[in-house]
Write a structure and sequence with these properties.
3 helices, mainly alpha, single chain
Length: 83
Amino acid sequence: MSWYTVAWLFWVVFFLVVEGKALFNKRDGDTLSEHVWRVFHVRDPRPTWLVVAGRMVLGLFLLWLLLHLTFGWLTPTHPLPWR
């Protein structure tokens, strides 16, 4: 097992512990999603153009992450699946 594997496992366990504690403590503003919502002003009824641009960047990143992790697409060695 490489040290990368150990590091990623540690990261996942750490995330699960922190997020689990945040989910069950009944306080607002401590989960990952609540932090993201605050940074991107999700509850703001009239977001600025900068907030909208940030949300678009976040959406594109999440789309890339979905395609990358689910299908192995958009990698440096295999950027496009149809080539």
